[in-house]
Amino acid sequence: MTTRLSRRDFLKWTTLGAAALAARPLASFLDLGRDASAPNVFVFVFDAWCAKHLQMQGYPRDTMPNLTRFAERAFVYHNHIASGSFTVPGTASLLTGLHPWTHRAVQLTAGGVAPAHEDHNVFAAFQKKYDTVGYTQNPYADIFLYQFEKSLDTYIPESAFNIERRMLSSLPIFNNDAQMAFASFENNIFRNGKGTSGSLFLGIGSRLGGLSRYSKLRKTYIGDYPAGVPIASGVFLLDDLVNGLSAAIREIESPTISYFHVYPPHEPYAPKREFARLFEDGWTPVEKPVHPLSRARHPWDEVLINRLRYDQFLAAWDAEFGRLLEEMKASGQLDNSVIVITSDHGELFERGEIGHNSFVFANPIVHVPLFISLPGQTERKDFYEFTSAVDVLPTLANLVGMETPSWTEGRLLPGLGGEEDPNRSVYALDAKTASSFSSFKQYSISVTRQRHRLIRYQYLDYEGYEFYNLDEDPEELKDLFASKPALATDMKNELDQTIADFNRPYEKKK
Amino acid sequence: MSTIREFFTNRLPEKKELTLALSGLAFLVFGWQLRALFYNFPAFLLSYTVGEILVIAAYMLAFALIETAIVMAFVLALAIILPHKLFAEGFSYKSFFLFLGLGAVSVYLQYVMNNQPKISFLARELAYGLAAWILLSLLTHFVPVVKKIILDILDRLTIFIYIYIPLGILSLLVVTFRLIFGGL
């Protein structure tokens, strides 16, 4: 059978084809009522960034001078609490405005949010009026971008700005099926962190190969990074990361909401040379007793060395990020956009723990910075009441004149549509060993209200409550729970009721 | 040509021995891969559709097939290179113990290894695995009852060849199709 195509047909089909290609973006722009004058929204998430390490929080080391300068033109939330103590629940709550027990992304190696909440995310909420851009350097957070893919106009692969693409799924052979290859290989067939690979023999080979490559790269860059080169899913350089972000931002056209989730200051803490000797000031923080739930039980001197490295890494990242802010200032983006800078969770350097892979739920593991800068803002505004990661999404929606999504569990941040409320209860939950499909039986959970924090630990080998007055005892050294103050009892009842409420739908019927 | 063929015929273990070794290997490799799949299954259910989970399973099983082939090729190379009495004779149980020893070392290392393992540490662990292999091989070689038990177990494991290998081939076809034609 032969097909005859006349010149007229050719022109007709070509025109129709071109029109069809243009139709989608055109329709999304015109029909959905996008307003080109609406401000861009940039959400920057620094992974594992603890608020306690900022000088404006009373920290003796000036770890982030550029951020401090940025804060002079921003709303600063001094007591902002992440919803989880590691990437999965922390990021999920930030992106969905839902508590971990609602979105159910709670496991250490878990995937995304519950199917019922797949469309409950910041990209879906903004998509009608905004273009959406998503990038995360953390593979665990990348799972959410995959899950919310249909609401993302531009997806930047997590290894885009790394110098080493360690992941098998980023090989050209998998180009046609990259996301399924990623889901299959990374953290399943091959696992580069803790835990075991699905591949019995080649898994360990892959891990040793990765370590060997890291060792070589470390030697290559030892001049610039004397304490080791930064690594997420693969090795990256801080300069490259900022250059990549800068290039991505230059491509953005109004109005766009961009989510940029970068790995620094997540471990391994790898300051550049010029920062690797900073803060050798002899200062030591208060030594706290090793917590019964500390599995690692790191010696105090090891904790101190890692804290110093973390501070140096913060300073190094601040310098690079400061460069990005300068570029945004020069292009006008800084003055014309809504800019959010926060973290998915904090970091611990106390009670025998280093990092955040811990069951210990001390304040630094959930206390994260939050800065929000509005277009044209020139003054700093400070807020000291407790706020939650779930508040960010509804606040952003409100800031750009959209309706607050009905499904979000957050409220408007004080100063940006909301009021300071000392009686508000702010929650954080770590249920990394729990099943997403059943009631949570083992967890660390905290509620913060009226300047007090109540923690409940519920594990097979340890359970109990801790209660702290954060005004008088910000280091959480004096557990007041045993003395049973009325507020502790009240907050305990509230916390226990909350747990019972979120577990009830998952309890097995007897 | 005939010289090369004769060389391999003489050096390679008997077909029965090969089958038993392959069954032991497939049991370990596919079993471990399936353990990982089921371990992550609850998380997958949250993130992916049933179809996507089946694709992930296909990737994992296809990879298990390739891994089985690679490791099998490795022990066959050993059988060809090493003196006949040392490895090709009693190939089934000697290979199986080698798989067990190396597999145990691999799993152990993945649990305990830090990010800067010393060569001496890795060598020590590998030596433990090889020592276990030699001890078990000697025990099986010199104690007929043990040999009978081990061969009986391997014989029963051959059922897994008929399950895992076709499953692996099917999975490999699925993955190949997706890599050529895309996720559709």
State the gist of this model.
The complex is a heterodimer of chains A (510) and B (184). Chain A has 510 residues and is an alpha/beta fold.
Description:
The complex is a heterodimer of chains A (510) and B (184). By secondary structure, chain A is of the alpha/beta class. Chain A has helices spanning 7-30, 65-71, 87-96, 100-103, 122-126, 139-147, 178-185, 202-220, 238-250, 300-331, 333-336, 392-399, 486-503, and strands at 41-46, 75-81, 131-136, 154-156, 256-262, 338-342, 348-350, 353-355, 367-368, 370-373, 381-388, 426-430, 443-449, 452-458, 463-469. Chain A is 32% helix and 16% strand. In chain A, the strands form three sheets. In chain A, strands 1, 2, 3, 4, 5, 6, 9, 10 and 11 form a nine-stranded mixed sheet that branches. A four-stranded antiparallel sheet of chain A has the order 12-13-14-15, with helices on one face. Chain A is globular. Mean pLDDT of chain A is 90; it is low at 20-31. Chain B has 184 residues and is mostly helical. Chain B has helices at 2-11, 15-47, 50-81, 91-112, 119-142, 144-181. Chain B is globular and about 55 Å long. The model of chain B has no long low-confidence stretch (mean pLDDT 90). The interface between A and B is large, with 47 and 45 residues.
Mean pLDDT of chain A: 90
What structural category do the secondary elements of chain B indicate? mainly alpha
Beta-strand fraction estimate of chain B: under 5%
Supply the number of helical segments of chain B: 6
Provide the succession of SSEs of chain A.
HEHEHHHEHEHHHEHHEEEEEEHEEEEH
Shape of chain A: globular
| Count of runs of 4 or more consecutive helical residues of chain A | 13
Cα-atom radius of gyration of chain B = 19 Å
Helix content of chain B: over 70%
Care to count the β-strands of chain B?
0
Which word captures the global form of chain B?
A: globular
Secondary structure layout:
The complex is a heterodimer of chains A (510) and B (184).
Chain A: H1 7-30, E1 41-46, H2 65-71, E2 75-81, H3 87-96, H4 100-103, H5 122-126, E3 131-136, H6 139-147, E4 154-156, H7 178-185, H8 202-220, H9 238-250, E5 256-262, H10 300-331, H11 333-336, E6 338-342, E7 348-350, E8 353-355, E9 367-368, E10 370-373, E11 381-388, H12 392-399, E12 426-430, E13 443-449, E14 452-458, E15 463-469, H13 486-503
Parallel strand pairs in A: 1-5, 1-6, 2-11, 3-4, 3-5
Antiparallel strand pairs in A: 2-9, 2-10, 6-10, 7-8, 12-13, 13-14, 14-15
Helix pairs in contact in A: 2-10, 9-10
Chain B: H1 2-11, H2 15-47, H3 50-81, H4 91-112, H5 119-142, H6 144-181
Helix pairs in contact in B: 2-3, 2-4, 2-6, 3-6, 4-5, 5-6
